[in-house]
Structure formats: C-alpha cells, structure tokens
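Let us practice reading a record.
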Amino acid sequence: MKANAAQIRAAVDKPKPDIRLFLFHGPDEAGAAELAERLGKAVGPDAERIDLDMKALREQPGRLADEAASLSLFGGNRYVRVTGLEEAGGEAVSLLLKAEQAGNPVVAIGPGLKASGKLVKMVVAAQNALSHACYVPEGMDAVRIASDLACAQGLRLTGDVPQRLASASGGDRAILAREIEKLALYLDAEPEHPREAHGDALDAIGADLGEVELFHAIDAVLDGRVGELGVEIGRLVQSGGSMIPLLRQLVRRLMTLSDLRADMDRGLAVDEVLEKHRVFFKEKASTARALRRWSAPQITRAIERVRAAERGVMHGGSAGDVLAEAECTAIARQAARARG
C-alpha cells in the first residue's frame, strides 16, 4: 500500500504486526534513514537490529524472509533493516511478502528505486506492506522541519532563522540537524530550558554551508576538471561545508542529467532538450557540455557511486570524507576521458 507523510509517520511510530515491510524510496535518503530510526525506537530501545544489503539479498534471496521470521537469541524484539535496495532485490521482497509467517518488521531504504519500477509497484499492491516516496523537503516543508528539529532541542527559531537554516542546508536533514545542535549548544538551550534563536546567534556560529563552493565543486566533477576539484573541495571545507551536501547535490544534478539525456536518446537535439526542461540560462552551457559528454549508462553508474560514497561518509567519519573525495575525483577523471 502507498502511504503519505502523515500515514507513514503514524505507521512507524506504532508498527502493526500485519505490516511486514516498510519501503522508503526516493532521493531523500536522510529522510528515509530518519523514518527507519523512528521504527527502530518504536520496536524497542533494546531491540536487536539485523542489517542486510544488496549483496546479501542477491546471494540469498530467502534470507530476508528468514530473518523476518527468526526469534532473537536473547528473547527480545528485533527488526531487519535493508540499505541500498535495488530492483534486483525484488525476489527477496516477494519471498518476504508471500512467506507463511514473519513477525519481525522489515524496513528497506532504496533511494534509487522509481515509483514506476516493478519493486515499488509490487509493494504498493501488497496488503502487508507500506511504500513511501521520500523527497528532499523544499519551501515551507523544509522550514517546518527546521522548526520541529529546533523545538526538540529546546529552541524557538525567530525571524528568518528557519528559512535561512532550511536554505543553507539544501533540504539535507542531517546537515540541518547538525547546525541546529550547534545553535542549541551556543545558546545553552534544552527542552526543559528553551531559548529563542535570533539571527545574530545564527551569524555567531557561522552557519554558512558554502553554497557557492558546492556549485563550483559539482561543476568541476561533471566537467572533468580534475585539477580544479581538489581546490574547490578545499574551499568548501574551509567555508564550513562537508562532503555530504556536496554528494547529495551532485546526485541531484546527475539525476537531472539522466532525464535530459533520456530525451536526447529519443532523438531530441541538445538545444531542444534545454528548452524543453527550461534549464536556467546561466547553467545552459555547462549542462550542454555534460549532456554531450555523459552517456545514460555512465550517468547511472555515477549516481550509484556517489550514493555509495555518501553511505561511506555517514558510517565512516573522517575516513569516509577521504573516500568520498577520491570517488568524486574518479568520476571527474571519467568525465575528462570522455571530453578527450
């Protein structure tokens, strides 16, 4: 079944035994991870979590259903989390949904899955599963999330502070939460001792995520300017940015290129594609270069590599940052070879 934002939040906060699978798909991987965390808390603070990835599902499709039906060694609650779910995981999901019994809820995150794909359609058609599309929050949704996160930290955002935080984070919940935590520490705010956060406090902590540096670094990757990429990433880090927003913005650009490239492969000329999609005039030249350089399979592979790099950053700390920079450099080299 398909669930909207309110329905899915209610479902993960109070999971019912007849729902075996919660599938979160779409580009907002941070939002999906937050929902998965909420489900884990609802199952129980001491619940055992079983982590599976696509490698495990490919090698043993039946393992997902087995884990969902298995009892914990310690007799407590347990749940299963699947990360990086792809269409190739369809057999494993089908076996789970058709199994005689389950018992342990399964939460699966598939940022690359499309609503029109077979796997999502299968889950939507099932009565014992919920599917929710996670999109990066924009506009008032992003402002609301900023205010909600701040409230949980004991902060009341005043003036244009919610809008500034939402804009600076680019809809990235992880980055937004980090900046709000810094703001709460600066103001010595706690839920029991709330504080108001004005614009001057935001200025004081330097919540500048380097939007200009992000733009230049992404352009360097897609344009194959390997020599400039290290400099741009250095500027980004010096301005207070991190690799996560860079990687997520890069994925968005690649996904946009994928849609544009599909029209080219159907016979449209580059100029026709740019006009059809109303590409911003300042980005037309760089977008046209990228479309001539990148094939559809290359774009798809680059998206997979960037998402893998993001997961590495989230779980690998400073080592993940180094690997992410290396991955961006490798993608830039690929673009440079295509240019040559």
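A brief commentary: The chain has a mean pLDDT of 86.
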